């Protein structure tokens, strides 16, 4: 049996820590195929990827990944449980038999995840009601500090989804030893116009120099327009707009900067990440019915591959379908993704769907 390894990433942006992680996977596990399920143009904490998904997929392929598949917006911009649900489902559909992720400490993830599942009747992760502090206390009872060890939170959720759905996926981990590489630090350096040349590979550095770096600073005027022009009833219909938050959004939108707006809306009940995601749903005008439709109509969208990935796709295509280009037949199923990508285009005017094909290592893409 082939050793098909997969992991989940945002590569926002791809840095030397990612390169080291990929090399460690290859040295430690010797996979026949290495697949990355990567968030598209939007990332989990309710932000814009600094580089678009096509450029990030290309950089990943050039740095050792065999195949990159997109994690759709409907799962990518979600709390850990739903993020992990979508990611593991894609890995399973891709025939992955080993998932690998980084962790701050060496834990028995399968044992902890199983205990949590057995307690499911006592604690429900209701993201409409339960505060992040309650969730953190729950995880602390299992020796996991969500705030100090964010990778462990996602790791536990990956394993829970594997157990829940009886996926035939083995769990592998790589311990991160106080890495000096941080995507957050790199993004801050970019914002402050500081050098990142010692933190990222040349391919990332080149892309960041040539491309417009997208952030909430670019889109806050559009968000303000939505909140000011929409009625409270319209805002109430936005996905995850609960408990009168539409009124709070209306009240605080007069601030001059996005971060000031988030600070004004933030409370003990709502974390910054949740409010950033809600702001993203508001900007894109996401409805719950669209999220439900996306979950009921899953797809595998290929963003890039090398020769190993291409050969694996040929074998896998007999069992499942892939989207490699967008035509009339794909417009309905990709409706939310296309709208979200079109909003990104308001800033850099780069087409993200029609006419785009996966990056193929060794070939010149249009």
Automatic annotation (TrEMBL):
ATP binds at residues 8-21, 102, 151, 176. It catalyses: cytidine(34) in elongator tRNA(Met) + acetate + ATP = N(4)-acetylcytidine(34) in elongator tRNA(Met) + AMP + diphosphate. One of its GO terms (molecular function) is ATP binding. It is found in: Cytoplasm. Belongs to the TmcAL family. Its main location: cytoplasm. Keywords: ATP-binding, Cytoplasm, Ligase, Nucleotide-binding, RNA-binding, tRNA processing, tRNA-binding. One of its GO terms (biological process) is tRNA modification. NCBIfam families: PRK13670.1. PANTHER family: TRNA(MET) CYTIDINE ACETATE LIGASE (PTHR37825). This is tRNA(Met) cytidine acetate ligase. Its EC number is 6.3.4.-. GO terms for cellular component: cytoplasm. Catalyzes the formation of N(4)-acetylcytidine (ac(4)C) at the wobble position of elongator tRNA(Met), using acetate and ATP as substrates. First activates an acetate ion to form acetyladenylate (Ac-AMP) and then transfers the acetyl group to tRNA to form ac(4)C34. The gene is tmcAL. It comes from the Bacteria.
């Amino acid at each position: 049996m082939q050793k098909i390894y997969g992991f989940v990433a945002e590569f926002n942006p791809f840095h030397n820590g990612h390169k080291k992680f990929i090399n460690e996977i290859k040295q430690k596990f010797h996979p026949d195929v290495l697949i990355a399920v990567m968030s598209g143009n939007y990332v989990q904490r309710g932000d814009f990827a600094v580089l678009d998904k096509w450029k990030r997929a290309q950089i990943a392929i050039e740095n050792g990944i065999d195949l990159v598949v997109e994690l759709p917006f409907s799962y990518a911009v979600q709390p850990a449980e739903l993020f992990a649900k979508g990611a593991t489902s894609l890995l399973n559909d891709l025939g992955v038999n080993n998932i690998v992720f980084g962790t701050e400490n060496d834990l028995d993830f399968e044992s902890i995840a199983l205990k949590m599942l057995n307690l499911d009747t006592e604690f429900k992760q209701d993201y409409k009601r339960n505060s992040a502090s309650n969730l953190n206390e729950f995880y602390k009872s299992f020796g996991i500090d969500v705030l100090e060890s964010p990778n462990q939170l996602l790791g536990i959720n990956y394993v829970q989804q594997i157990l829940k759905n009886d996926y035939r996926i083995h769990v592998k981990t790589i311990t991160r030893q106080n890495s000096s590489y941080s995507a957050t630090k790199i993004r801050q350096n970019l914002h402050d116009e500081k050098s990142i040349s010692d933190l990222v590979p040349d391919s990332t550095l080149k892309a960041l120099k040539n491309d417009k770096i997208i952030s909430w600073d670019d889109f806050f005027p559009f968000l303000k327009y939505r909140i000011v022009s929409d009625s409270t009833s319209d805002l109430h219909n936005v996905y995850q707009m609960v408990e009168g938050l539409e009124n709070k959004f209306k009240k605080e939108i007069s601030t001059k900067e996005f971060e000031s707006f988030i600070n004004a809306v933030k409370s003990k009940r709502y974390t910054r990440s949740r409010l950033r995601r809600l702001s993203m749903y508001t900007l894109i005008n996401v409805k719950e019915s669209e999220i439900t439709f996306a979950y009921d109509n899953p797809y595998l969208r290929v963003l890039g591959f090398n020769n190993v990935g291409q050969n694996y796709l040929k074998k896998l295509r007999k069992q499942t379908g892939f989207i490699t280009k967008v035509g009339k037949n794909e417009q309905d199923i990709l409706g939310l993704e296309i709208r979200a990508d079109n909003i990104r285009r308001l800033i850099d005017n780069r087409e993200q769907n029609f006419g785009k094909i996966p990056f193929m290592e060794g070939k010149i893409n249009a």
